[in-house]
Amino acid sequence: MRLQREHPWPATEAEALAVQAELRPLVRAVPLPAPPRLIAGLDVAYVGAHGAADDRVAAAVVVLDAATLEPVERATAVGTAGFPYVPGLFAFRELPVLVRALERLTTTPDVLLCDGQGLAHPRRFGLACHLGVLTGVPTLGVAKTPLLGQWTEPGESRGATSDVHDSGDLVARVLRTQSGVKPVTVSVGHLIDLDDATRVVLDAAPRYRLPETTRLADRLCREAVAAVG
After folding, report:
1. What integer pLDDT is reported at residue 82 of this predicted model?
2. What is the mean pLDDT of the chain?
3. DSSP 8-state class, residue 150
4. Residue 153: how many CB atoms within 10 A of its CB?
5. What percentage of the chain exceeds 70 in pLDDT?
6. Residue 175 · residue 186 · CB < 8 Å
7. In the prediction, which pLDDT does 50 show?
8. Which residue among 99, 100, 175, 187 is buried most deeply as judged by most CB within 10 Å?
9. Closest CA to 63 of 177, 206, 217, 221
10. What CA–CA distance (Å, rounded) separates 204 from 42?
11. What is the structure's pLDDT at 51?
12. Count of beta carbons in the 10 Å neighbourhood of residue 36
């Protein structure tokens, strides 16, 4: 899988903010052209404590058949974060190693599901937005809790939702993937709208709170960490 866009990698907070400001206008929230055939989960794990630019990071990508949720392909990469921990700039720590893992895929997924945020970000440019712009692949964020905004608790039944608003903007949707279980938060990254993103996440979570994409990618990156630990 090849990137559609690249940019110089920032070394400072000011440079990172400039990259976000440059790329943010490229984000498009649009319906998917067709139901996805292949979906991919992405996740990272850190080797030991993290916060510094030289932290070791393992990234994993697991491609699944969207209909059966059976794994089709896996890829991992290990590297350094390359950027210190700064709130709102977390993508710059994880994207370099995630991109390396994606580049090792021989297939191109129809949708990427990131463990993180998209438009639900202070500058409306979370990791899912950034990755979507770089890859040109529809991308969404699915997180355990909202990063910001206001919402009401959704109903208790599977599929119940509640929109998340921040400063007047619709930035995410809280989704109950299993009846009586704590919901997850879905946000648009790029080239997908919130309705389609919600549908993709719900379809990928038939049995557990988290979608299979997240569960399998989390397991794989932890295995990668153990291998280099």
Report:
1. 82
2. 94
3. B
4. 10
5. 98
6. yes
7. 62
8. 187
9. 217
10. 14
11. 66
12. 22
Q: Is the pLDDT of residue 206 over 80?
A: yes
User: How far is the C-alpha of 20 from the C-alpha of 55, rounded, in Å?
Assistant: 22
- How far CA 15 is from CA of 9, 64, 89, 186, in Å, comes to 8, 36, 11, 28
Q: Mind giving me the DSSP string for 6-69? A: --PPPSSHHHHHHHHHHHGGG------SS--SEEEEEEEEESSS--STT-EEEEEEEEEETTT-
Instruction: Give CA separation, 44 vs 29, 214, 218, in Å.
Output: 25, 10, 7
Query: CA–CA separation, 203 vs 182, rounded Å?
Result: 17
Structure tokens at 125: 């440019």
In one-letter notation, the amino acid at residue 190 is H
Token digits of residue 177: 């993937």
39 closest CA partner among 165, 189, 140: 140
% of residues, the chain, pLDDT over 90: 83
Confidence tier at 41 by pLDDT (50, 70, 90): very high
Q: pLDDT, tens digit, for every residue of 150-194?
A: 999 999 999 999 999 999 999 999 999 999 999 999 999 999 999
SS3 of residue 171 by DSSP:
strand
Local structure of residue 152 (DSSP, 8 states): -
C-alpha angle 65-67-73 in degrees, rounded to nearest 5:
5
Classify 197 as helix, strand or coil. Answer: helix
CB of 121 closer than 8 Å to CB of 185? no
- The amino acid that residue 109 corresponds to is P
